[in-house]
Every structure is written in C-alpha cells, then in structure tokens.
Amino acid sequence: MKRSNIIMFIAALLPLGLFLFPLWKITLEAPQYPTPLGMYIHINDFSDVHPHDIKNINLMNHYVGMKYIPEAIPEFKIFPIGIIITTVIGLIIAFKGNYKWFLFWFVLMIVLSSAGLYDFYLWEHDYGHDLDPKAIMKFTNPDGSVMGFQPPLFGSKDILNFKAHSYPRLGALFLGVGIAASFIAYLIGKKNNKKSVTM
Amino acid sequence: MKNILKSTLALLSVLVAFTSCDNASKSNSGALSSSAAEKVYVAPGEHDEFYAFISGGFSGQLSVYGLPSGRLFKVIPVFSQDAEKAYGYNEETKPMLNTSHGFVPWDDAHHPDISQTKGVVDGRWVFINGNNTPRIAKIDLTTFETTEIIEVPNSAGNHSSSFVTENSEYVVAGTRFSVPIPQKDMPIKDYKGNFKGALSFISIDPEHGHMDIKFQLIMPGFDYDLSHPGRGKSHGWFFFTTYNTEEASTLMEVNASQNDKDFIAAVNWKKIEEYVNNGGGTMMPAKYAHNVYDEATHSATSTMKKEVRVVNPLEVPGAVYFLPTPKSPHGCDVDPSGEYIVGNGKLSANLTVHSFTKMLAAIENNKVAGDAYGIPILNFEDVLAGVVEQPGLGPLHTEFDGKGNAYTTFFISSEVVKWKLGTWEVVDRQPCYYSVGHLMIPGGNSQKPFGKYVVAMNKITKDRYLPTGPEVTQSAQLYDISGEKMELLLDFPTIGEPHYAAGCPADLIKPRSKKLFKLEDNKHPYATLNEADTKVVRDGKTVHIYMTTIRSHFAPDNIEGVKVGDKVYFHVTNLEQDYDVPHGVSMIGANTSELLIMPGQTETFLWEPKQIGVWPFYCTDFCSALHQEMQGYVRVSPANSNTPLKWSLGEDIE
C-alpha cells in the first residue's frame, strides 16, 4: 500500500473519534457559579460537565424565556450516520482510489462539516432568539431591538451576568485532523504520481 | 530667637526619637513577626484552616466556627427545636427528640468529640451529650446534620460524656448524678449506699456510626464528672473523675467537699467487653429511645428499647480501680502518649498527674490501699507521676499540643497556664476574659493534636463586648501556641454557653461535604420527583399535599377544597439539583415552623386550618430573582361544604 493511501486510511478513521469524545463545549461563567455551568455537545448527545448542569442552565435560561435544551435533536440521528457513511467512503477511497479521490473526500468533508456548523449556528440562533413572549425578564439592545441570548459559535461572549465560552473539544480535533490528513494524503499522492510519471 | 527655635527643634527631634524608640520597644517580637490581626485575618474568599465545633451549652445546639477567624458558619440543631431549619418541627425530625419522657425539645449540650481512626481525628462524625435528659447524639459531617440520638437509661446528668475511644469503638456516657437503679420512690436521705452511678459504653458501628448501648457499668453512688479515654499505651482503659465520694445528698457545696481526696475511676473496658462478649452481665428492664435519621427517606424513626445490659464491676475482677485524686477533681485529661492522666482538683491548689505505667505496676504488685464498695483503691503515692505546684486557682481542664506541653485552664484566677509534661514546670500563663471553663486544641483528644491554636471558652465577658442588656454574649478566645509563649489573638462571641469544643483541620471535612441530595435517591414516602406528579389527596379529614418547589414557583400554587378542621400535610420536595439552593415554605397560621428544604430533599409540616378564607403560603428563603413571586393560596371552605378538591399551576385565568 502506498504511503498516501495509508495516510488516507488513517484520515478516514480519525472522525470516528467523535463517537468517543465530545465535539464541542459551552461554558457559562457567573459570580454565583464559582464552578461554571457547562454542557458538552457530542455527535449524538448533550451531556453535563458537572452533574445537573443542563438542568441548571435551563433553570437560568427560563427567566429570559429561552426554551429548555431538549433531550435530543434530529441532528443526533443524522450526524452519526453522516460520519459513518463518510468514513466508509474514505476507507473505500483509501483502498481503491487514487490521490484525486482523496481531494474529493477532503472537499466532501469540508462541505459537510460547514453544513454541520451552519446547522449548529441555526440551532443556537433559534435557541437564543425564539423567546417565550411571556418571558419573565425582557432585555433590549441599545438600538431597541430584543436582545438575543445566543451563545457564540466559537469564542467567548458576555451575555448579561454570564460569560459564555464556546470551543471545540477533542472530537472536533479528531475530525479536523482527519480532514487535514486527507489533504496531506492528496498532496503526497500527487507528488508521487508526478515522480512515477517522469520516471 | 533663632537659637530658641533651634533648641526647640532639637528638643522635639529628641522627643520624637524617644517616642519612636518607645513604639519600637512595644512590639518587641521583631520586625518580621506579624500582628495578631494578620494572624487571624482570612481574606474574602479564603477558607479557614480549622473547623471548630463549639457546644451551645444550654441552647442544646452545636455551632460550627472557623479558626483562626472565629467566624460562625452554622448552628447545628441537636437537642433543641430550631425554627430556622424546621428541626424538631417538621414531621421528619420530630422523632429525633423523642425520649422515654416523651418529646423533649431541649437539652444542655456539653462535650463534642470527633470520631477517630487509629488515634487520629477522622472528621466523620461529631458526638455530643445531652446533659439534662441523658442522651448522646451523632452528627454526620458530610451533611452537618444530627442523624442519631440515643437516650441513656439509668443515668442522670449525662456529664462525663461524650468522649470517643481511639478507633471510635465506643462513645462513653457517664452519669454525673447517681440515682436509684432502677428508679423508685424512696427517701432522698437514704442516698448513701443505695444510689448508683451508671457508666455507659455505647458502641459505634465502624461503617455507619450507628450507636448501641453495649453495657452499663453500675458503680458506687458518686458523681462521675468528666472522663477521657486512654490512648496509645493506655488504649483499652477509660478514666472518670468523681466527686461526692462522701455520698452526700444535701447542701452539696459543703457536704460533698469534705474528703481530702476523691477518685479517678480507671475502667479497663476491653476486659469488660470481653466479659460481655462471653455472655457476661445481666439484661435489665429499661426504657430508652433510639432515634435514627435515614438520609434516603429524609426521615427519622424512633424506637423504644426495653432492656439494657448491666455489669456489676465486682463480677469482673481487675477491671475497675480507684486512683485517689485531691479534692473534687473536675477535668480528667489524658496526654497524647496515654501515659499521663491529669486530674484537676478544682478545690486543690495543686495539679495532680497520675502515671499509667505506675498504675499498672501497682495493680500488678497488688498494692491496694483499701476498697470502696469492693472496688480496689490504689495508693496515691504509687500512681502519682507528679504535681504541678500551685500553678493557679481552680484548675479545670487540660489539653495537649503534642509537643510535650500541657495547657490547663484556671477558673478562679481566669487564665490558661502552659506547663511541661514530666518536669511539671510552669512555662507560661495568659489571662482569660473572664472565668475560663474548657479549652480546646484541634485534635486535643487524640494521639495527634494540631498544636497551633488553643481556644479558651469563657463563662463571663462583662466589658469585653458592646453591652446587650443584662445578658452579654458568651465568648471564646483564640491563642497562638506555636511559640514558647502563648499569644492572645482574638476574642469572638459564641452562642449559648460555649462548653467544650472539638476541632480538626478543615481538609478532613471539606472534600467530603455533601452539596445536594440526589432526587433519584429520594425514598421519602411522600416525595414528588417531578411537577407532573404533584397532587392533593383527601383521606377522611386528612389532606396530603404533594408539592414541589423549584426557582421560582410551587406546584401546585392554587389549592381548593380544604375545609376547616382538616389536618393538612404539606409534603414538599425541592426539585433543585444545584448546590446551595434550598427553598423554604410556610403557611399562615401553621403551628409549626417554616421548612427549609435542601435540593433533592422532602420535608413535611402540618397545618390545621381553623378559619374559612383564602390563605397564602410562600417561600421563606430568598432563592432567586423571583423569590418574592414564589407564593400560592389555599382556599379553606366551611367544614360541611362540598367544595371539590382542586389544584393547579399556571392555568390561564380567563
């Protein structure tokens, strides 16, 4: 097996790390929470950072009319299937395909990941903006518009008395490294191909 | 003119120089030593180094302080009802205060002691005695709640108590007052020879701490004042001071102070335990309550026991000896090595220290001076280790720093005196403000004292604090004992009469402190684990309200169909699963108290409506931004009405 195919093989397997490690983490800090509240987003689940954190996030959020974080979302069914399918495709490519297919897989993963991130953003946006009209507390922005409570997609942001942090975790790293590795496999494959052509 | 100015300036500068010299000489402890204020300052957000559990004396409670700051953290209700926490008011904890005399919602809490493992305090439980209606309580240090109380039969004035042996095998409960055993109607003047003193050995389950009276030693009718377990080499023995060996029954201050020497009773409990394990002793009818709080049901049950095993000391030869000790000893303290037994003769000018090794030798050589009711009395000289000559007036209690020093309080001369074990020389003395009783060094009743601080507990404060009418605060004082000389660092007020205290490093307790009760573990028979299950159930004239709380509402909050003359039980479950978020609740006209319900806990109070109307209930503990909105109503209809039972939460009002 060529070196590029071995790398592609590894690249295709790496996203499976999402089944072992969380994809993302959202942390909420406030003076009343010396131990911050936090939730992990896995490929197929939400989970508490400390016991009962999601319950307590819900309790906090209901003051401004945010919905409860659901037990499950449709994405929890779609994303794992997507990852398994793309891994299978990647593995087939690693065994059968040449370097051009590696690029195809790379692009496919970029597109799907972007779509996933965009979906995540939409979900966050809805969660932070679709507020109960009977909300206990209503806040407006300086321009008069209704304040949203969307956590950042990536980075840190002040939301009222909370500081919200949103950062990728180990699962996302596995995915990212996998995608990057497929591109490297493509570059190596391309280089070797040129060499063999000139020979 | 210039000269005058010059000389004035010169004079001034000399004065300034002298003044500063004077200032410098006042703080003679050197530039590097910090001030007392710095030593007790615990910055905002920082934690104290030690926990101190200071008894509340006649308040019947146990208070929790931090050292060195002297800040009060909590008052744990033990023997007294406490409206703040609904202890003794809610249905769950009422059984804790049950006794053979019925519901006794008060006691005189004296001597806390922390459980030990291998002679070192382990921070699992605190035991404390109720002096008035004899009881021993166990406080669980994961929750800081009283979880068990056992009544002590055949006992009166449970004073030489509640000290724990070095592996928490036993907690002891010795009677201060001797009484007829069993109790009977008899002339008081016939006290002598007829009254008896019971020394109770209460076993502690090593896993759960459950208490059980293993045996009672029925001793001659003296007053058994204080006690301490042997440790190290003397592990297996227990020592009790006695007074009124005269067996007087009237005008005690005179008649019980006639004998030049009273005794320290030395009890070889291992020997008696062996005797009992082999079937020794006799079961005697006795009525006493054993109350146990179960963390899963959040409820206590009270069981009335019917008999107790008693042991006559004469049945176990070699198990009990009397060590003559000068005049009415009070404190009875054993040093960390277990060699020295300090008997503080409160009416004697000297401090008497007995030697355990010499005691054993005297026993071995059968050097007996006489006997009291058949119990051998050893020779004073044969067991004496040494005497601290005239160290002060009115010696009471001694603690040890683990570095070969002892610290004794003197009530009359109002001071703490530091002296050396073995040489018996006085090293230092510091005044107390005023009239000190007990003192405490963290881990003082163990093989490993943490000899950094000593806390003196004073009976009188007079001018030390802002006056608050005829009664001024009780107080404790903190001394630094890390150096050769003691240094008074801090005065701090205490609740009740601070009687005795137990202390240990905060790190023993902090990591094990419970933050909440898991809802899924809640086995309370009337628990409601989610809002959907809330309900109101009528059973004849009794109404059970299954209610929940969460920030910031009750479910249900509107209840109709309750009638005058009903017995209404509010069973309230706190659905929170967050640290430090209790909710409270009370109902107008309830003859109990509020409930203060911890996250995941269920508590119950009884309300008996006597008037028709629509009556509010509300959250009593400021829980959230909308605490003030956390309220509800109960509609009360006439006794003969047929208003249907209804309840709701958040239904549209249109």
Structure explained in plain terms:
The complex is a heterodimer of chains A (199) and B (654). In chain A, 51% of the residues lie in helices and 16% in strands. By secondary structure, chain A is an alpha+beta fold. A five-stranded antiparallel β-sheet of chain A has the order 3-2-1-5-4. In chain A, β2 and β3 (46-48) form a beta hairpin. In chain A, α1 runs antiparallel to α3, α3 (75-96) runs antiparallel to α4 (99-129) and α4 packs antiparallel against α5 (170-198). Chain A is elongated. In chain A, 27% of the residues are buried. Chain B is mainly beta and 654 residues long. Chain B contains six helices and 45 strands. Chain B starts with a helix and ends in a 6-residue tail after the last strand. The interface between A and B is small, with 9 and 9 residues.
Provide keyphrases for this structure:
heterodimer; A: about 200 residues; alpha+beta; five-stranded antiparallel beta sheet; 5 helices; about 50% helix; elongated; B: about 650 residues; mainly beta; ten-stranded mixed beta sheet; six-stranded mixed beta sheet; 45 strands
SSE diagram, text form:
The complex is a heterodimer of chains A (199) and B (654).
Chain A: H1 3-13, E1 24-30, E2 33-41, E3 46-48, H2 53-61, H3 75-96, H4 99-129, E4 155-159, E5 162-168, H5 170-198
Antiparallel strand pairs in A: 1-2, 1-5, 2-3, 4-5
Helix pairs in contact in A: 1-3, 1-5, 3-4, 4-5
Chain B: H1 2-26, H2 36-40, E1 50-55, E2 61-67, E3 72-77, E4 98-99, E5 102-103, E6 113-117, E7 120-130, E8 135-140, E9 145-151, E10 158-164, E11 170-175, E12 196-204, E13 211-220, E14 223-229, E15 237-243, H3 252-255, E16 261-268, H4 269-277, E17 282-294, E18 299-311, E19 320-326, E20 329-334, E21 340-345, E22 351-355, H5 356-364, E23 368-372, E24 375-378, H6 380-383, E25 384-388, E26 395-400, E27 405-410, E28 415-420, E29 426-431, E30 436-440, E31 453-458, E32 474-480, E33 487-494, E34 501-505, E35 535-539, E36 542-550, E37 553-555, E38 558-563, E39 567-574, E40 583-587, E41 595-597, E42 602-607, E43 613-618, E44 631-637, E45 646-648
Parallel strand pairs in B: 13-18, 36-39, 38-44
Antiparallel strand pairs in B: 1-2, 1-34, 2-3, 4-5, 6-7, 7-8, 8-9, 9-17, 10-11, 11-12, 12-13, 14-15, 15-16, 16-19, 17-18, 20-21, 21-22, 22-25, 23-24, 26-27, 27-28, 28-29, 30-31, 31-32, 32-33, 35-36, 36-37, 38-45, 39-42, 40-41, 40-43, 43-44
